[in-house]
């Protein structure tokens, strides 16, 4: 198992109104780091597309947060592939403060997507061998999500714009989180921070469609869905007051 790490200074434009690093930015920086490791091992995203017409796609996150990185804080991020099976690859990301304090951990599940046919494909040994990780027979059991209460659910519509689309031709995975938490409102988001997040991507969202973000809060946990006629993503977030 090979570990890749780098230092990162949190810029102003990746910080929210509370001065914390935005969760979508955390996702984007983490994926950038995994891409850099792949490049260093000779199996970059460009190589993967040119050789197989495949791309990596995240299907699930589980995030444990001690505290969020702050604006202008220099942090260290490390990532390593933990294991894989015939269809799923598992990777962790760990964020540290300058003093070595662990800030947050992201456990992620990836699949390989055939770009032309838009379908998940079998994991090729040649693609994952450079990461020196273990092949396992069992799948990691995903989180079982709670249901939204139709009597208390909050809904908000969003239109998918050009800048929401990434190079894989679908809505970037970080955008879903923006849509999900927006119905909770400024007052709540200004006084609370997440400490545990489960996020699952079910079906791609493409350019030009309208999506419905549905959120429901019970005690200190919010439940979320992104929907069109289909279900596209769901999340469960445990919050605490700042």
Automatic annotation (TrEMBL):
It comes from the Bacteria. The keyword Transit peptide applies. Gene3D superfamilies: Hotdog Thioesterase (3.10.129.10). Residues 3-131 form the Acyl-ACP thioesterase N-terminal hotdog domain. The keyword Iron-sulfur does not apply. Residues 153-241 form the Acyl-ACP thioesterase-like C-terminal domain. Keywords: Fatty acid biosynthesis, Fatty acid metabolism, Hydrolase, Lipid biosynthesis, Lipid metabolism, Transit peptide. One of its GO terms (molecular function) is fatty acyl-[ACP] hydrolase activity. Belongs to the acyl-ACP thioesterase family. PANTHER family: OLEOYL-ACYL CARRIER PROTEIN THIOESTERASE 1, CHLOROPLASTIC. This is Acyl-ACP thioesterase. It comes from Pseudolactococcus paracarnosus.
């Amino acid at each position: 198992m090979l570990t890749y790490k780098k230092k990162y200074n949190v810029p102003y434009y990746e910080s929210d109104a509370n001065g914390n690093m935005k969760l979508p930015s955390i996702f984007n920086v983490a994926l950038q780091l995994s891409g850099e490791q792949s490049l260093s091992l000779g199996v970059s995203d460009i190589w993967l597309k040119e050789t197989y017409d495949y791309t990596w796609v995240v299907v699930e996150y589980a995030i444990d947060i001690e505290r969020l990185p702050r604006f202008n804080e220099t942090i260290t991020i490390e990532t390593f592939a933990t294991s894989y099976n015939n269809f799923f690859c598992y990777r962790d990301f760990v964020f540290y403060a300058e003093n070595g304090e662990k800030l947050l951990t992201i456990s992620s599940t990836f699949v390989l997507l055939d770009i032309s046919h838009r379908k998940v494909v079998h994991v090729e040994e040649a693609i994952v061998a450079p990461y020196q990780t273990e092949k396992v027979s069992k799948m990691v059991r995903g989180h079982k999500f709670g249901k939204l209460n139709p009597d208390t659910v909050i809904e908000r519509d969003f239109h998918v714009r050009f800048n929401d689309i990434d190079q894989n031709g679908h809505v970037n995975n970080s955008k879903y989180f923006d849509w999900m938490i927006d119905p909770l409102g400024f007052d709540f988001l200004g006084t609370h921070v997440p400490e545990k997040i489960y996020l699952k991507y079910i079906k791609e969202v493409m350019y030009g469609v309208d999506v419905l973000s549905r959120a429901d809060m019970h005690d200190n946990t919010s439940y979320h869905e992104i929907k069109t006629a289909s279900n596209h993503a769901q999340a469960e977030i445990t919050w605490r007051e700042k």
